[in-house]
Write a structure and sequence with these properties.
InterPro entries: GH, GH13_cat_dom
Number of helices: 5
Strand order of the largest sheet: 1-2-3
Structural class: mainly alpha
Order of helices and strands: HEHEHHEH
Protein name: Alpha,alpha-phosphotrehalase
Number of strands: 3
Keywords: Glycosidase, Hydrolase
Strand content: 5-15%
GO molecular function, one term: alpha-amylase activity
Number of domains: 1
Radius of gyration: 16 Å
Shape: globular
EC number: 3.2.1.93
């Protein structure tokens, strides 16, 4: 459901339609992609993130739909490194982000390590990464 709409997701997840229990929207993950380019990161736009999350929360609630909530996955940077501060405020950032996701309506998904406030690795060369996307760039 990466680029679908709230209206479509309401149709899919409204219990009266007996289709899906929830949908994953990836719109909030694109707030730091300049011109939609995943590998050319820019500072994230906090206001845009807030607007997207609010739009999906209010829209899905009003239409009887249900969100799957998540900050990151295997294709994304660690949430504390991305939207928080992985230095001096790592613990506070992790707690704030965990609180935010658990206070929204929907089912929260916690990516492995997120419960510990895990940060991005500090590799200095692309060859140190051993995942499909970095190897096939």
């Amino acid at each position: 459901m990466s680029s679908t709409t709230v209206d479509h997701c309401i149709r899919y997840t409204n219990p009266d339609n007996k289709e899906l229990d929830m949908t994953f929207s990836f719109h909030h993950l694109k707030v730091d992609y300049p011109n939609g380019e995943k590998w050319a990161l820019a500072p994230f736009d906090f206001l845009k993130l807030k607007e997207i999350l609010s739009y999906w929360q209010t829209g899905m609630y009003a239409g009887g739909g249900w969100n799957a909530l998540f900050w990151c996955n295997h294709d994304q940077p660690r949430v504390v490194s991305r939207y928080g501060d992985d230095g001096a405020y790592r613990v506070k950032s992790a707690k704030m982000l965990a609180t935010a996701i658990h206070m929204m309506q929907g089912t929260p998904y916690i990516y492995q390590g997120e419960e510990l406030g895990m940060t991005n690795p500090k590799f200095t060369d692309i060859s140190s990464y051993r995942d499909v996307e970095s190897l096939n760039m």
